[in-house]
Amino acid sequence: MSVVVLLGAPGAGKGTQAPLLAERLGIPVVATGGIFRAAVRDGTALGMEARRYMDAGQLVPDEITVKLLLDRLARPDASSGVILDGFPRTGVQAAALDHALDERAERVAAAVLVDVPADELVRRMSGRWICRSAGHPYHETSSPPRSAGVCDLDGSELYQRQDDRPETIRVRLDQQLGALGEVIDYYRAAGVLVVVDGLQEIGLVAAGVETALAARGIRAPSPVENVAGRA
Ligand SMILES: [Zn+2]
User: Fold this and answer.
1) H or E stretch covering 111
2) Backbone phi, then psi, for 192, in 5-degree steps?
3) Predicted pLDDT of residue 222
4) Residues lining ligand 1 (ion), CB within 5 A?
5) Which of 81, 92, 105, 204 could serve as a FRET partner for 145 with CA atoms 20 to 30 Å apart?
6) Does the annotation count 72 as an active-site position?
């Protein structure tokens, strides 16, 4: 089983890469949000426990999250492996995950970091502008208005909310990058960190991830190998 952890700062394109990687490797993406929702929906004991924290507006404790992850990993569709998205978020969580996997004689095979410099993350996340009259959204690079500072639809002025301003985003990002840095350090020390340049075009990032994983023996089973396996 190949447990692959996908790492990246907000705005690095991790969410775009997760399904691409899942398709290339033939294994599912497991995101903690989805696991919580499924466990609550299925009414499992762990799900009910997680729900108590969520209902109270609290973070679900790592111990419960790790147990839910292990249950998910035991499902048939995860028999060849999973891509973990959104967990671990801290060094403590990374260690808790390792400990739990170790008890099942499993391990994290690779931690893939989609690496984008902080300045570029700020640029990507701070490009959002909305119009005063109706809140129509624009983005400096991905969906700019036809004429700068003016809404295409109603001609009203465009402005940036406090949350979307570079200085606000910078502060929030620095906090998030601190926790991500712990996780990166953890996996680097474990010798499983794979860094891919996230400034490249989406397809090239995906190809880079695939190549780096293949070099570690993590790849989708080819038809030939399947035949050999049955023989
Ligand atoms: Zn508008």
Assistant:
1) strand 108-115
2) -120, 10
3) 65
4) 131, 134, 136, 151, 153-154
5) 204
6) no
Question: Which of these is catalytic: 52, 75, 132, 161?
Answer: 161
Residue-wise pLDDT for 131-175, tens only, equals 999 999 999 888 999 999 999 999 999 999 998 999 999 999 998
Dist. CA 118–CA 9, nearest whole Å:
9
pTM given for the model = 0.83
Helices (H), ranges, the chain = 14-25, 32-42, 45-55, 62-73, 91-103, 118-125, 166-189, 202-214, 223-230
Residue 154, judged by CB atoms within 10 A of its CB (0-12, 13-18, 19+), counts as exposed
- Given a contact cutoff of 8 angstroms between Cβ atoms, the answer to whether 176 and 170 are in contact is no
Q: Is residue 67 annotated as part of the catalytic site, yes or no?
A: no
Name residue, tokens 């035949």. Answer: 227
Half-sphere exposure of 150 (CA within 13 A, CB side): 6
